[in-house]
Each structure stands twice: as structure tokens, then as C-alpha cells.
Amino acid sequence: MTDFSVYFFSSDDRNAAGDRYRFILDVARYLDDRGFLAIWTPERHFQEFGGSFPNPSVLSAALATVTRNLRLRAGSVVLPHHHPVRVAEEWALVDQLSGGRAGICLATGWHKGDFVFHPDLYEDRREYTFGHVATLRALWRGERVSFPGPDGRPLEVRTHPRPHQPELPLWLVHTSNPETWLRAGREGLNVLTLLDSWERLAENVAAYRAARAGAGLDPAEGVVTVGLHTFVGDDEAEVRRTVHDPVRRYLASFVRQKRGDAAVDGASSAMSDEEQRALVDVAAEDFYRRRSLLGTPDKCEQVVRRLAGIGVDEIACLVDFGVPFDTVLGMLPRLDALRARCADLCPAPAAAPSAAPAPGPAPDGPGATGEPAATAGETARRAGVPDGGLSWYYARP
What we know:
397 residues; 12 helices
């Protein structure tokens, strides 16, 4: 069946930090009681966008104490910010506290402003991340691993505490690089991604399954998780009113960050404030109509069924994009009802890339987003936003 989880990545800091974390705990308790699969919390630094989440292992340790069944996942750990031994130790502790419910999605990072931790790893961040996948797995299994020590002498370590699970569930975050899907498939990693294009998602999922098969792995066992902005309501007009301003504030925060990132990297964005507002309007409408679980149960069910049809295993519902906390908590029973409606769905069998399912019409009809695709794409490129979509911020891992 296609599983449902919830993803947190808030950009709205108008709420007090204590209220935000209480909200996350309240959502987690509800998900745990109702049988949702997992909860995802990211790693972010020095930015409003996602800035409530500097360390997912700390938050997951807290979540472990208030849940019994919900899987606790980092979405993501930016591996070049950490020594792999620290990652293994921290998440083994979460695994013990939770009775074996920990999982990690790895990201490479990309923004120079984040690399105050290990500036020497910035240029080789991709190689560092992929190079330590085997390291993390070995440490998790209890093997002794050698690392450089003082005076250039190697030191062997075996981490403690020992985790509850014998193997560490690992995802790889994906934004815009198709090679990431192939690498994840060959190395037996799961994939966490966003829906930026139905056609591209279908192609990438098929390529991922084929890469797993080519590496001698069961193509069906790899988990593809897709994140979607989510708010389910019984009345379409009311849902639109509820999410209209929060979605635009969320996207505007992202675009502002991208412009700030360009300044840190020594570049400049040619986008004017007017163009920024136009991009946000285009992206928000596209999100609502084609790439989200924003709307009525009937509309959202079509999206879920279409995702299952191209082989998606799990939908990570992003719920903290600026809608008031009490309103989100009131929405959760409708999300649970949608999950029940889709309980019969199973992801489509693996297929070769050439046999990827046809995308079909958008869930609400064949219309466009309100602006020709080429125009929206050009506006986005001037802002430094790939493909006019919202990335996980970790570009081209």
C-alpha cells in the first residue's frame, strides 16, 4: 500500500518556539494513535526557512518519548556537517529510545553559508556523503572502523550505544540531479524527493528501479517518498481561502532565501521584487492545482492514486507551511480519512525507464498553472530556483 507520513519544514516564525515544538509533539501523538507510518524532521541552519530544526536527532529523541509506533526520520542529515561517528552515535540513541524506529535521509548540502562546521568539505561534499554511506552502515552494524587520529595515526572505533535495528534505514534526498536516482538505486538507498514534474518523477522512479535491478537488488524494495504540501478540507473554496496566504508566504520565504544565498555565494539575482511576486503567484497556483494535497478528499485522492500508479511508496505530508496550528490539528482527521480511502493502493510494479507510465492529465484537468510554462520557468531561473519548483534547499545532491 502507499503509506502516509508527515514532514515538518516550517518557515513561519511568528509563533513562539515553545508553541511550535508543542505543536509538533501534538501532531506526532495523533499520527501515532491513528497508525500513520512516520514523521520527518529536517536539519537546517542560519535561515528562517526551516530554522526551527538545527538537529533532527534531538527532536527525534523527544518524539521517541511520546510515541510508540511512529517511525522517526531525519529529513535530512547534511552529512558533510558531521563526522559519521557522531551521526551513528546520535541516531543509535534515538533508535534505542524508540525501540527501533529511527531512519535517516542523507543530504550533501550546497550553500556556502552553512559550511561553517567543516569549510574544508564544501568542494568535495558530494564525494564525502557518498563515500561515507558504507561507513555509516558499518558503524551501525557494530564493526570497528578506522579514522585518522592525532599525529596522523589511525584510530579504530566501535560506537555505543548499540542500536536496536540491525541495519540503518537510509534515504537520499533528491532535487534536480537525475544521477542521484541512479546512485541511490545502485547503492540500495531509498529516495526522498518533491514533486516538481509528473513526467520527470515517473522517469526517475523507473530509472531508480532499473538501477536497483542492475545492481542485483530487488527493485521493488527501494522506498520512494514524495513530499507534498497538505491541507485536506470538505469545501474547495474554504481550502483555497485557508491556504492562499500561507502558501504564498512560504514560497516567498524560500525565494528570499535563494536571493540571499546568491549574495553569500558572490552572485547577484537579477529578479526584481515584482518578478518575485509573480513567481510566487505562479508557483502557488501550480502547487494548488497540480502538485499538492491541497483541496477536497476527491481531488487529493486522485493525486495519491496517480503517485501510486508511477511507483511511489510513501507520501510525506508537509503540514507546517503557515496555517495556524489549531487549524492544522483540526485538519488531521480529514487527512486520516483520506489515508483510509487510499488504503487499497499499492505502488505500480517496477518498470524499465522506457516503460515509465504516461503522466496523464493533471488531477484537476488539463489546464495550465495560469502562466505559460516557459515564462514561469524563465522567471524561476532568474531567481535561481530550478524548474520553477521548490527544492529541499539541498540542490543537486
